[in-house]
């Protein structure tokens, strides 16, 4: 391991000194900055954040720029939703069009946000959180750097005090991801690594990451942070966009996957919710977070697979924001439509 690592470092240093572009997939922006990916020798130095390589090995962090993409989609607006029930676990699968955003209020009153949809969904998520009376977030989770998950998180960070931010140790070269990293930095926070085995410090519930189990190179969906949340005898599994490889690895690693409610992976794409995962989770309910899209999400195969397994399925495109309320024994659902 050590030898391989040293070789890799030497190789990366060589590449850095000869050709920065070679060592850094993705474009360097006009200011000479970029976001390092996992194969960058500098990754880990500043936890993968956006920075410059200015040729002599030192790094600087620029000030955040105005997000050019947050002008907003006129059609996208927040549904009217009900505030959380006191002393219960309330899970809101927020309707943010195509993308994912889930807000959780624990029975002890802690606030968790998993993803915030696309850039233009940022204001919508802020609106939802205000409707729900949220004043701060104990935990923010960025499942993976794709724009339909990480897009709105920078806007949320500028509107709410956030105590801890968790994300898997993978990076991306997009402006959207850079905006998120800069917003985290501006709040004086350091990203905590989301990976299998990491437990969230929350009272009254058991919340642990069960994925990612491994590193998945450039396969961003497979890197998704997967959270298992248990309250009493009820449990939820939030999968981000985790696909078959990650699903198989979590099963092989004997992670606790069983749950009453499954947030279906990757917007109901055929790439996720393998028969093996469905068997391991054996949910009573599934929620698909999806909007207008050209990818064919959700796939008929997955809808049929859930139906054959007697899983009651809700969809944010058809039902609007879907709310699940657990008293620790039973789960009830509210939907907008
Ligand atoms: Zn996605
Ligand atoms: Zn994705």
Automatic annotation (TrEMBL):
Keyword terms, alphabetized: Hydrolase, Signal
GO molecular-function terms, A-Z: hydrolase activity
Which Pfam family would be a valid example here? Lactamase_B
**The keyword Hydrolase is annotated on this UniProt entry:** yes
So which residues are the signal peptide here? 1-23
- This protein's source sits in the domain of life called Bacteria
Comp. bias (Polar residues): 55-72
Q: Where in the numbering of this chain does the Metallo-beta-lactamase domain appear?
A: 98-292
In terms of SUPFAM superfamilies, this protein maps to: Metallo-hydrolase/oxidoreductase
Q: What does this protein do?
A: Counteracts the endogenous Pycsar antiviral defense system. Phosphodiesterase that enables metal-dependent hydrolysis of host cyclic nucleotide Pycsar defense signals such as cCMP and cUMP.
* NCBIfam families according to UniProt: YHYH_alt
Query: Under which name does UniProt file this protein?
Result: MBL fold metallo-hydrolase
Q: Which organism is it from?
A: Cohnella herbarum
Task: List the top taxonomic levels of the source.
Answer: Bacteria, Bacillati, Bacillota, Bacilli, Bacillales
């Amino acid at each position: 391991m050590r030898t391989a690592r040293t070789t890799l470092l030497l190789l990366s240093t060589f590449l850095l000194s000869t050709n920065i572009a070679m060592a850094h997939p993705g474009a360097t922006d006009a200011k000479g900055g970029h976001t390092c990916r996992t194969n960058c020798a500098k990754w880990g130095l500043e936890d993968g954040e956006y920075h410059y390589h200015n040729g002599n090995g030192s790094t600087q962090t620029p000030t955040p720029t105005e997000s050019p993409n947050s002008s907003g989609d006129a059609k996208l607006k927040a549904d009217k939703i009900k505030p959380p029930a006191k002393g219960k676990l309330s899970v809101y699968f927020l309707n943010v069009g195509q993308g994912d955003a889930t807000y959780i209020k624990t029975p002890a009153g802690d606030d968790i946000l998993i993803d915030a949809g696309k850039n233009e969904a940022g204001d919508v998520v802020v609106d939802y959180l205000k409707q729900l009376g949220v004043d701060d977030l104990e935990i923010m989770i960025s499942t993976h750097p794709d724009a339909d998950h990480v897009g709105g998180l920078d806007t949320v960070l500028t509107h709410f005090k956030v105590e801890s931010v968790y994300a898997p140790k993978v990076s991306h070269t997009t402006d959207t991801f850079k905006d998120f990293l800069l917003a985290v930095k501006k709040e004086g926070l350091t990203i905590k690594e989301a990976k299998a085995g990491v437990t969230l410090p929350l009272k009254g519930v058991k919340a642990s990451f069960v994925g990612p189990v491994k590193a998945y190179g450039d396969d961003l969906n497979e890197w998704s942070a997967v959270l298992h949340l248990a309250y009493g005898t009820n449990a939820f599994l939030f999968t981000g966009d985790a696909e078959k490889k990650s699903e198989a690895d979590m099963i092989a690693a004997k992670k606790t996957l069983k749950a009453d409610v499954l947030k279906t992976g990757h917007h109901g794409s055929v790439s996720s919710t393998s028969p093996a995962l469905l068997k391991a989770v054996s949910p009573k309910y599934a929620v698909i977070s999806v909007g207008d899209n050209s990818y064919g999400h959700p796939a008929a195969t997955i809808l049929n697979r859930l139906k054959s397994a007697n899983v009651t399925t809700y969809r944010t495109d058809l039902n609007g924001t879907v709310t699940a309320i657990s008293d620790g024994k039973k789960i009830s659902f509210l939907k907008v439509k």
